[in-house]
């Protein structure tokens, strides 16, 4: 499937293109840190950062580690991630000295799904794509959150129309608190933080992929496209997998 990426992709970095430290960012940064501190006190071992390894989540991981907050960090390995995404896990562990818990789908469920629907089931229908997401993402996420009372995400209101009302804290529909401490940050502010604190990020962001999921389901975006337009680009859908849809 073809697409038109942004011009200059080979020559520019996301930091060079986007990073702008706004006058409001100092206050937003302090507020985000305070949200993380309060959540850590309120939930203790019941709190986990569920990291997509995208740039927003890397900012939050940096905040957690930089300020020595006792918050567990975990991620999902769907079995279909880009090598560049997976390479961030040892980079985080080396940079911050923090272990990252990795949750993978149940192998037998993946084998049965692929045997029944094929390796490219996600392209056949929205229903099958969501079924693939369920096996590879939702089931391992449920195990990640088992026994937890709260989880932290990198959701931002600017990411898409569907996320324009993301709250700093809300019920996730399963009796847990769902925290999005940088919900009000702009794309420019996220990258300004990355630049100032030298946060490790996925190099695919430099190739105009602001939202990075599984390899078959992610492409670069073109000028003027929504942040999440590169996810399941062949669909006319809300561009969500179910991780952040209230039950």
Automatic annotation (TrEMBL):
Its EC number is 1.8.4.10. Coiled coil: none annotated. One of its GO terms (cellular component) is cytoplasm. CDD domains: PAPS_reductase (cd23945). InterPro entries: APS_reductase, PAPS/APS_Rdtase, PAPS_reduct_dom, Rossmann-like_a/b/a_fold. Its cofactor is [4Fe-4S] cluster. Transmembrane segments: none annotated. GO terms for molecular function: 4 iron, 4 sulfur cluster binding; adenylyl-sulfate reductase (thioredoxin) activity; metal ion binding; phosphoadenylyl-sulfate reductase (thioredoxin) activity. It is found in: Cytoplasm. Binds 1 [4Fe-4S] cluster per subunit. [4Fe-4S] cluster binds at residues 132-133, 214, 217. It holds the Pfam family PAPS_reduct. GO terms for biological process: cysteine biosynthetic process; hydrogen sulfide biosynthetic process; sulfate assimilation, phosphoadenylyl sulfate reduction by phosphoadenylyl-sulfate reductase (thioredoxin). Its main location: cytoplasm. Residues 47-220 form the Phosphoadenosine phosphosulphate reductase domain. The active site is at 241 (nucleophile). It is an enzyme of class 1 (oxidoreductase). Pathway: Sulfur metabolism; hydrogen sulfide biosynthesis; sulfite from sulfate. It catalyses: [thioredoxin]-disulfide + sulfite + AMP + 2 H(+) = adenosine 5'-phosphosulfate + [thioredoxin]-dithiol. The keyword Nucleotide-binding does not apply. Belongs to the PAPS reductase family. CysH subfamily. PANTHER family: 5'-ADENYLYLSULFATE REDUCTASE 1, CHLOROPLASTIC, 5'-ADENYLYLSULFATE REDUCTASE 3, CHLOROPLASTIC. Catalyzes the formation of sulfite from adenosine 5'-phosphosulfate (APS) using thioredoxin as an electron donor. HAMAP family: CysH (MF_00063). This is Adenosine 5'-phosphosulfate reductase. It comes from Inhella inkyongensis.
């Amino acid at each position: 499937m073809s697409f038109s990426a942004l011009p200059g992709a080979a020559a520019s970095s996301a930091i060079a293109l986007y990073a702008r430290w706004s006058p409001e960012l100092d206050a937003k940064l302090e507020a985000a840190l305070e949200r993380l501190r309060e959540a850590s006190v309120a939930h203790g071992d019941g709190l986990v950062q569920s990291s997509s390894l995208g740039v927003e989540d890397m900012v939050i991981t940096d905040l957690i580690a930089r300020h020595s907050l006792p918050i567990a960090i975990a991620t999902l390995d769907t079995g279909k991630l880009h090598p560049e995404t997976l390479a961030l896990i040892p980079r985080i562990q080396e940079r911050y000295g923090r272990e990252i818990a990795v949750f993978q789908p149940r192998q037998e469920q993946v084998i049965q799904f692929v045997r029944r629907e094929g390796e490219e089931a996600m392209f056949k229908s929205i229903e099958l794509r969501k079924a693939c997401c369920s096996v590879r993402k939702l089931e391992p996420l449920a195990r990640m959150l088992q026994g937890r009372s709260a989880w932290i995400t990198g959701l931002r209101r600017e990411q898409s129309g569907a996320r324009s009302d993301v709250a700093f804290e809300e019920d996730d529909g399963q009796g847990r608190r769902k925290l999005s401490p940088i919900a009000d940050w702009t794309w420019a502010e996220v990258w300004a933080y990355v630049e100032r604190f030298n946060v490790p990020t996925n190099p695919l962001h430099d190739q105009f992929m602001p939202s990075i999921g599984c390899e078959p389901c992610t492409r670069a975006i073109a000028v003027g496209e929504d942040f999440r337009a590169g996810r399941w680009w062949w669909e006319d859908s809300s561009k969500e997998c179910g991780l952040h849809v209230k039950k």
